[in-house]
Amino acid sequence: MLAPHPPSTQRFLSGNEALVLGAHEAGLVVAAAYPGTPSTEIVETLARCEGVRAEWSVNEKLALEVALGASLAGCRALAAMKHVGLNVAADTLMSAALTGVNAGLVIAVADDIGFSSSQNEQDSRYWGRFAHLPVLEPRDPQEAYLMAREAFDLSERHQMPVLLRLTTRVCHVKRRVRLQGPMQQPARLPYTKDPARWVLSPGNVARRLEVRAAREAALRAEAEVSPWNVIEQGDDRRLGIIASGPACHAAREALPDTPMLVLGFSTPAPLELARRFAAGVERVLVVEESEPLLEGELRAAGITLHGRELLPPHGEINAGHVARAACRILGEPEPAPTAAAPHQVFARPPTLCAGCGYLGIYFWLARLPKAIVCGDIGCYTLGASPSWNALDTVLAMGASLGIAAGVAKAQQGEAERRPVLAVIGDSTFLHSGMAGLLNLTYHRANVTVLLLDNRATAMTGGQNNPANGHAMDGSPAPMRVDFVKLVEALGVRPERIRSTDPYELPTFLGVLREEMKADEPSVVITTRPCVFTPEFERQPALVVDEEQCNGCTNCLDVGCPAILVTRREQRARASGKTVDLAWVKIDPTLCTGCEICAKACARGAISVPEPRKVIKLELA
């Protein structure tokens, strides 16, 4: 729990933690989210704050709707998600921009600039522009804290949601944050029945559009004088920088003497302020991550400037990028790039954990070259990587089922049809996969669905969800999803629903082959808990019998990081074919004793060690 603090103290906080502290001080009551890096810690931390009712919602759309409902009922609320999650919530977002809010509602969206843990890179400021919502962009944890304190007031002043846009660097970088002390807690606002506002029928929409237009005009006027939009003076007026968010740090590091307009309240753009700034310098460079949103608006307003044509088209912007852009604008020689000394490090690609139930699944999927395997978002996305290379597609949450349905439909009537599989995890299935399965069964698409139940939202840290029977705080939930009953209710015939243990390699393969032959939708549910959940039971580490091992590499095909190569050779067989052999050992500190590698070993060279004999000494 975040303890109370006196004013003018400091804490060492990440941007996510700082945002939480600011929101808590502002009187936040309800918080909802779906976990996703780099936003996960926001609601995880809020759950430990006194007086905050926090939940992991099934998806981001529901999280926003929960927060909107709390606002409607008069409580300050927050929804948190990563950038791709805001896509999921977009339907509700666009309508909430019309209805507006009652109590303050903040949407904390974390953009993964540089796509360090995401399937794409997006700029959520466009949602603010698209929905006509205000966007605040903190440049560091200090501003994340202060903006969170004030965002709820901004929301209530204009009766609309506020987008608080962070980036990975703001979310996860830590700094000393100067705290302001407790705020006066707002009284709960009354709920007033108002169907003309909250029921978006066509007859009501026109009136709400007029209200939204008036609110946006008021927001634009406020942005012009907002203390978050500041001009930082500089002596070298040959160039001026207009920057937003953490990109301003790169600009200041590169050009310490250059005037800069820093925009923290960036949408609606303060055009008059930008014009005044541009009039005081010879040239203007816009520095923003990741899309040229400000650049386009300022150009449309008649401001002559430089922008994305001189800066990287994606990823984080650093001081070197800005320095080179400035040199090109000013006609100065560009600084020579400093070559970093090469580091002698070995590659460490991401991999599944030792003992993960997915290891056995991908061991077999990698041996189905004719199958088209559609993957999804989760730890099992790693099945697209070596040593398995087992997935053909990974696009978005829940997309495996829809894409697989399309592939199957395209093959209808063909004499030689390739088997089609969809791989999806428990949390992702509940997030956005259920509708995909219903679509499969309704249209009788010939797809075999692998529903991987590891009883956690594992990829983002093992958060609880309706599939494991625990609430956010770990207490027992009133229910736990029964996947067998659920998929049957979604139209899969009971004969085509199979539950199996992915540790049992031959049994799993037999079930998989049977269901792939079925001429209708089928679901194979695998049941092994994530190794980081309390349900997982670690077993004694396995050992390799060096005399039995012939270097066949079957165990390496499992992909377990606990299996280490000790020696490699190439040998020519009698047929003339050259084969690569590898001898291995097992790291006892990593091995969980799952025995998947032992079942993959045809020679029985991997086994559980004999228990040590305990010799009792009898004292005379």
Can you lay out the helices and strands and say which pair or pack?
Elements (H helix, E strand, L loop, with lengths): L9 E5 H11 L4 E4 L7 H6 L6 E4 L3 H13 L4 E6 H6 L1 H10 L5 E7 L13 H7 L3 E2 L4 H18 L3 E6 H5 L1 E5 L16 H4 L3 H24 L3 E4 L7 E5 L2 H8 L5 E4 L1 E3 L3 H9 L4 E4 L5 H8 L18 H12 L27 H8 L6 E3 L24 H12 L9 E6 H17 L5 E6 L29 H7 L7 E4 L4 H13 L4 E6 L15 E2 L18 E10 L5 E9 L9 H5 L5 E2 L13
Parallel strand pairs: 2-3, 2-4, 4-5, 5-7, 6-7, 10-11, 10-13, 14-15, 15-16, 16-18, 17-18
Antiparallel strand pairs: 1-8, 6-12, 9-11, 19-22, 20-21
Helix pairs in contact: 1-7, 3-5, 11-14, 16-17
General description of the model:
The protein has 620 residues and is an alpha/beta fold. The protein contains 20 helices and 22 strands. The protein has a seven-stranded mixed β-sheet with strand order 3-2-4-5-7-6-12. The chain has a five-stranded parallel β-sheet with strand order 14-15-16-18-17, sandwiched between helices. Strands 9-11-10-13 form a four-stranded mixed β-sheet, sandwiched between helices. α19 (505-517) links the parallel β17 and β18. The relative contact order is 0.08. The mean pLDDT is 94.
